[in-house]
Every structure is written in structure tokens, then in C-alpha cells.
Amino acid sequence: MSNDLLNGKSVIITGAAQGLGEAYARAAATAGASVAVVDLDGAKATSVADSIEAGGGAAIAIEADISKWDSTQDVVKKTVDEFGKLDGLINNAAYYCPAPAGEESEADIRRSFEVNVFGTQFLSIHALQAMGDDGSIINVVSGAHSGLVHTSTYGASKGAVASLTYCWAADMQASGSRIRVNAISPYAKTVMLEQTVAFYAGRADGPGSGPLKQAGPGFIDSAPDPSTVAPIAVFLLSDLSVGINGQVVRMEDGNRLSLVTKPHVLAQPLYRPEGWTPLDVAAAFDADLRGRLQPVGINYLDATIVPAADTIEPFTITSP
Predict the structure, then answer these.
(1) Is 216 a residue whose pLDDT tops 60?
(2) Which of 154, 187, 200, 300 is the catalytic position?
């Protein structure tokens, strides 16, 4: 990875004490950025920041609960006070709580939205004010919002973050701002993946057909390292991504790069000038729409999103 793509830039990365957040922080520092390593675990955040500094990079650790408005405001202030400005933000921190539908707890639902949605929105609002008219915000979403069993709360919160991404990007475009707002949908070997596999183990109602008995240590070990997703983060933070706005970039298996499509109308609407009755709607489904029904959910073992009807054959990029 080039070590100068982010020279002179200052970035905040949440949930950066381990996993994907740590990978983003280390990659950004290697590319020349000054990095605020933000995490609820202050000791681990300090360890990551110290390691970056020991390797010749610039980093500070900030212990913070991003679900608190004042705390997110303080994160931005400390970063600007230390580095003089703010150019980028990666909203990576998340709360995860798998549960079958109808068994979710109030505490988990509230904490999920406080961290995943409110935390993303709070910190981004303060970051937007500090950035002025130029910068990059990267949200972290998940394929779970397309329908992964037992992740209703997490998937709903990440679906909200995807919508924030689209709406903020539209706001920036409408105002003429040069701030870009995009998202990453990652897949990598993380603590969250280990929690997922442990939760699904032995269940007869997990993703796919039957119990996830095959999703044991071998499945976890075969998952790509978080560092395979980090180049997307560096790209989106850098000036190479100027003109890219409102996109969700997906990385699977460390080598499959794609874009996630937005919710959209799949076909030309059926028109009935006299209006519709329930029987008319039923007839329309029988005649046309049943053949266009979308698959329910995604298969976690395959780690794939159901492709759109107009997908092209995969191709390989080779360096010149």
C-alpha cells in the first residue's frame, strides 16, 4: 500500500482497538494520516496508538462512549486540538446481539441503536462541522440488513446507517460540498464473526439449509484478515475517491470487490387507470410480480448478497 496517499490528513476511527477498526487505523497511519484511535476500551486504544507511534506514525488514543452526544463532541475537539484539523471519519464501532425474532431484549435493542445509529449520527454531525467543506466520512454497514437470520436488531441498525449514508451524500451534493459520504460492507475474521459462529453452532434454524455444524473453527480460520478490507478505507479517505459519493462498497473473501445496490423499483410499475382492488393486486402478482419476487435473506456461509439480474461476469484486475 502506498505510504503517502493520506499525507497531511487527520482522521478519526471508532472501534479502533481491535479487528477491522484497528486494521483501518494502522492502514491509515501507514498511508500518512494522523489517526485518533477511538474506543470504549481506553487501554486497548492506547496500545494501538502507541504501536502506531512506535512504527513512526502519528496517533492518539481517545476513550469514548460514542452513544453520548457530549462524548462524540469531545472526540472531535480532542482530535482537532491535537492535529489541527479533521479530514476523515470512519464510523466503525458497533454493538452486536444476535437473537431469534421475538426473543430480542429491550436492553440489546436500545444499546444497538444507541451505538450503531446514534453514535454514527452524533459523531458525524460534529465531524461535518469540523471538516468545513472538504473531507470524507465512511460508515460501516453489513450484509445483515439484507436479511440474515437472527440479526433483526443488528441488521435494522445497519440498514439505518446505510440510509444515513445515502441521505448525507445527497445533502452534500445538493449543497455543493466536497465532503464525500460512503460506506463499507466488510467481511473478515473478527470477534463479531466468532460470536456469530458460536451463536449459530448447533442451531437447526441458522443460515442455509440445516444446522451450521460446518461453521466451526475451520470456518473462522478461513475468513480473510481485517487487513484485506483496509485498502478500501484508505482509498475512500484519500483524494483518489473524489467524485465517489453515496456508495456502499462490499469486500468479500479478501479479493471480491463490488458495490451494494440501493433499494429501488425492480420493474416498470403496472398501471390501472381505474384504481386497484385486492383481487386486481392478486391478479397482477399471478400474471407478473410473482416471477420477480426477491430471495428471502442471505446465506452467511456463502457471505454473498443475492446479485441483481443484470450482473456481469466477474473479472480480474491486474496491476500494470
Answers:
(1) no
(2) 154
